[in-house]
Amino acid sequence: MCFGGGDNFAIVAQHEPFGFLENKGQMEDINGSSVPYVLFKAETSNLNLWITTSGITYQFLKMGEEKKGKSESEDKQGEWHRVDMILKEATIKKENVISENSITRGEINYYLGHCPNGVFNVKTYTRITIKEVYPGIDWVIYTSPNGRIKHDFIVHPHADPGRIKLIYEGSGKLDIKDNQI
Fold it and tell me: Which one, 103, 129, 174, 180, has least CB within 10 Å?
Protein backbone atom coordinates (compact mmCIF):
# COMPACT_ATOMS: atom_id res chain seq x y z
CA MET A 1 0.00 0.00 0.00
CA CYS A 2 1.23 3.49 -0.77
CA PHE A 3 0.11 6.81 0.57
CA GLY A 4 0.35 10.09 -1.30
CA GLY A 5 1.54 13.27 0.31
CA GLY A 6 -0.25 16.57 0.83
CA ASP A 7 -4.00 16.60 0.37
CA ASN A 8 -3.99 13.60 -1.96
CA PHE A 9 -4.40 10.35 -0.05
CA ALA A 10 -3.66 7.41 -2.33
CA ILE A 11 -3.91 3.71 -1.72
CA VAL A 12 -2.58 1.06 -4.06
CA ALA A 13 -5.14 -1.61 -4.83
CA GLN A 14 -3.89 -5.17 -5.09
CA HIS A 15 -6.26 -6.35 -7.81
CA GLU A 16 -7.34 -4.87 -11.15
CA PRO A 17 -9.86 -3.76 -12.17
CA PHE A 18 -10.65 -1.89 -9.02
CA GLY A 19 -13.66 0.32 -8.48
CA PHE A 20 -16.49 1.56 -6.31
CA LEU A 21 -19.57 -0.67 -5.95
CA GLU A 22 -22.73 1.44 -5.68
CA ASN A 23 -25.07 0.87 -2.76
CA LYS A 24 -28.61 0.46 -4.03
CA GLY A 25 -29.83 -1.00 -0.74
CA GLN A 26 -27.92 -4.29 -0.74
CA MET A 27 -25.30 -3.25 1.83
CA GLU A 28 -25.95 -3.92 5.50
CA ASP A 29 -24.29 -3.45 8.87
CA ILE A 30 -23.23 -6.25 11.21
CA ASN A 31 -26.79 -6.41 12.58
CA GLY A 32 -28.31 -6.98 9.14
CA SER A 33 -29.82 -3.49 8.82
CA SER A 34 -29.47 -1.50 5.62
CA VAL A 35 -26.93 1.33 5.59
CA PRO A 36 -28.29 4.18 3.45
CA TYR A 37 -25.45 6.47 4.60
CA VAL A 38 -22.99 4.25 2.63
CA LEU A 39 -22.94 5.37 -1.00
CA PHE A 40 -20.18 3.09 -2.40
CA LYS A 41 -17.81 0.35 -1.28
CA ALA A 42 -14.43 -0.75 -2.63
CA GLU A 43 -12.36 -3.67 -1.42
CA THR A 44 -9.15 -5.57 -1.98
CA SER A 45 -7.48 -8.28 0.06
CA ASN A 46 -6.03 -5.76 2.53
CA LEU A 47 -8.44 -2.81 2.30
CA ASN A 48 -12.14 -2.08 2.68
CA LEU A 49 -13.28 1.43 1.81
CA TRP A 50 -16.70 3.03 2.13
CA ILE A 51 -17.73 6.37 0.65
CA THR A 52 -20.35 7.69 3.06
CA THR A 53 -22.46 10.77 3.66
CA SER A 54 -19.72 12.03 6.01
CA GLY A 55 -16.56 11.15 4.04
CA ILE A 56 -14.52 8.00 3.53
CA THR A 57 -13.98 5.12 5.93
CA TYR A 58 -10.82 3.08 5.36
CA GLN A 59 -10.30 -0.30 6.96
CA PHE A 60 -6.72 -1.56 6.53
CA LEU A 61 -5.42 -5.07 7.18
CA LYS A 62 -1.99 -5.01 8.74
CA MET A 63 -0.27 -8.36 8.69
CA GLY A 64 1.55 -9.40 11.84
CA GLU A 65 4.45 -11.69 12.51
CA GLU A 66 4.55 -15.29 11.32
CA LYS A 67 3.55 -17.88 13.89
CA LYS A 68 5.81 -20.94 14.08
CA GLY A 69 4.26 -24.37 13.83
CA LYS A 70 1.23 -23.22 11.85
CA SER A 71 0.23 -24.27 8.36
CA GLU A 72 0.98 -21.88 5.50
CA SER A 73 -2.60 -20.53 5.60
CA GLU A 74 -2.33 -19.84 9.34
CA ASP A 75 1.25 -18.52 9.56
CA LYS A 76 0.43 -14.81 9.78
CA GLN A 77 -1.96 -12.96 12.03
CA GLY A 78 -3.84 -10.00 10.58
CA GLU A 79 -5.20 -6.98 12.39
CA TRP A 80 -7.76 -4.53 10.98
CA HIS A 81 -7.40 -0.78 11.55
CA ARG A 82 -10.05 1.81 10.76
CA VAL A 83 -9.47 5.41 9.69
CA ASP A 84 -12.31 7.83 8.97
CA MET A 85 -11.69 10.84 6.77
CA ILE A 86 -14.53 13.20 7.62
CA LEU A 87 -15.38 16.23 5.49
CA LYS A 88 -16.31 18.63 8.27
CA GLU A 89 -19.46 20.68 7.58
CA ALA A 90 -19.83 19.10 4.11
CA THR A 91 -23.07 18.07 2.43
CA ILE A 92 -22.65 14.67 0.80
CA LYS A 93 -25.90 13.53 -0.80
CA LYS A 94 -26.68 10.51 -2.94
CA GLU A 95 -28.67 12.68 -5.35
CA ASN A 96 -25.54 14.77 -6.01
CA VAL A 97 -23.47 11.77 -7.15
CA ILE A 98 -22.31 11.36 -10.73
CA SER A 99 -20.88 7.88 -11.37
CA GLU A 100 -18.55 7.39 -14.34
CA ASN A 101 -16.58 4.64 -16.11
CA SER A 102 -18.55 1.53 -15.17
CA ILE A 103 -16.37 -1.57 -15.07
CA THR A 104 -19.24 -3.94 -14.31
CA ARG A 105 -19.47 -6.82 -16.75
CA GLY A 106 -23.04 -8.07 -16.93
CA GLU A 107 -25.55 -7.47 -14.17
CA ILE A 108 -25.02 -7.83 -10.43
CA ASN A 109 -28.25 -8.61 -8.59
CA TYR A 110 -28.75 -9.23 -4.86
CA TYR A 111 -31.41 -11.15 -2.96
CA LEU A 112 -30.86 -10.69 0.77
CA GLY A 113 -32.90 -10.95 3.95
CA HIS A 114 -33.21 -7.20 4.35
CA CYS A 115 -34.16 -6.75 0.65
CA PRO A 116 -36.02 -9.97 -0.30
CA ASN A 117 -37.50 -8.43 -3.48
CA GLY A 118 -33.98 -7.99 -4.78
CA VAL A 119 -31.66 -5.17 -5.76
CA PHE A 120 -30.91 -5.19 -9.45
CA ASN A 121 -28.24 -4.03 -11.86
CA VAL A 122 -25.70 -2.84 -9.27
CA LYS A 123 -22.64 -1.38 -10.99
CA THR A 124 -19.03 -0.67 -10.11
CA TYR A 125 -17.40 2.58 -11.22
CA THR A 126 -13.84 3.91 -11.35
CA ARG A 127 -14.80 7.58 -10.88
CA ILE A 128 -17.32 9.23 -8.56
CA THR A 129 -18.08 12.96 -8.51
CA ILE A 130 -20.14 14.38 -5.68
CA LYS A 131 -21.39 17.85 -6.58
CA GLU A 132 -21.58 20.73 -4.11
CA VAL A 133 -20.07 19.07 -1.04
CA TYR A 134 -19.32 22.66 -0.09
CA PRO A 135 -20.85 25.64 -1.92
CA GLY A 136 -19.19 25.73 -5.35
CA ILE A 137 -16.92 22.77 -4.56
CA ASP A 138 -17.18 19.25 -6.01
CA TRP A 139 -15.40 16.17 -4.66
CA VAL A 140 -13.98 13.62 -7.12
CA ILE A 141 -12.90 10.15 -5.96
CA TYR A 142 -11.28 7.89 -8.53
CA THR A 143 -8.91 5.04 -9.24
CA SER A 144 -5.86 5.75 -11.33
CA PRO A 145 -4.51 3.34 -13.98
CA ASN A 146 -1.90 2.05 -11.50
CA GLY A 147 -4.65 1.07 -9.01
CA ARG A 148 -4.36 3.98 -6.58
CA ILE A 149 -7.42 5.53 -4.99
CA LYS A 150 -7.24 9.31 -5.12
CA HIS A 151 -9.51 12.23 -4.46
CA ASP A 152 -9.54 15.85 -5.57
CA PHE A 153 -11.66 18.88 -4.88
CA ILE A 154 -12.81 20.99 -7.81
CA VAL A 155 -13.16 24.57 -6.63
CA HIS A 156 -15.37 26.50 -9.03
CA PRO A 157 -14.96 30.29 -9.55
CA HIS A 158 -15.91 32.40 -6.52
CA ALA A 159 -16.01 29.37 -4.17
CA ASP A 160 -13.96 29.46 -0.97
CA PRO A 161 -11.39 26.60 -0.79
CA GLY A 162 -10.95 27.44 2.91
CA ARG A 163 -14.26 25.67 3.57
CA ILE A 164 -12.62 22.30 2.87
CA LYS A 165 -11.81 20.72 6.22
CA LEU A 166 -10.65 17.13 6.51
CA ILE A 167 -10.61 15.39 9.87
CA TYR A 168 -8.91 12.01 10.29
CA GLU A 169 -10.06 9.77 13.13
CA GLY A 170 -8.90 6.24 13.80
CA SER A 171 -8.97 3.32 16.16
CA GLY A 172 -5.95 1.54 17.49
CA LYS A 173 -2.34 2.32 16.69
CA LEU A 174 -1.32 2.55 13.05
CA ASP A 175 2.18 3.60 12.05
CA ILE A 176 3.04 4.90 8.60
CA LYS A 177 6.71 4.65 7.67
CA ASP A 178 8.19 4.98 4.21
CA ASN A 179 4.67 5.46 2.78
CA GLN A 180 3.54 2.03 4.06
CA ILE A 181 1.54 0.77 7.02
Answer: 180
